[in-house]
Amino acid sequence: TLLLGQPQFRATMASPDMEQLRQRVLASYHLGPLDEEETRAYISHRLARVGWGAYGTHDPEIEDAAFAALHAATGGIPRRINTLMGRVLLGAALAEQHRIDAALVEETAQEWRQDLGTAPTPEEASGTLPAGTGERLARLEAGFARQERIFRRLLALLSGAEGRGDGGEA
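The structure corresponding to this sequence follows.
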C-alpha cells in the first residue's frame, strides 16, 4: 500500500488513532519543493510526455525567464506548478501566442492569486487605500480586460465548433 498526501497528512498520521497504521509503515518520504532547475526539468518532462518537442519543434517556445517566473510564483510545489502552467498554456493558446515569457507567467500568476480570493487589507476594507493602489487597480482592470478577451475568444471558438454540426471535431 502506498499512501500519498499533502503536508497535513503527516499530522493525521501522527495522531494516536493512527498508531496501528504507523506500526505497519516500512518507509516514508517527504517530497519538498523543487528548486528552479528541477522545476524547469519537471515542466519540460510533462510537456514532452504530451508531444511538446516532437519533430524538433517546441511550440509554444518557453523563455528561460518564464521558467524562473514559474518557479518563483509556485515555490516549486508540483501541484502549484501544474495549475499555473495549465493556466499559462490555456491563456497562450487562446491568445494564439507561440512564445511564453516571464511577463505572461507573472500576469497569469497574478490572475490566479486573484481567483483564489486574497482578502483585502484593513485599509482597503475601510476605504482608506494605501499608496500605490491606483496602479494596482489599473493592473487589475487590465487583467480583467485580458480575461474577457480570452473568454470571448474561447466562446467564439466554441460557437464555431457548434456551428459546424459535426460535434466540434475538425
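The two ends are 43 Å apart (CA to CA).
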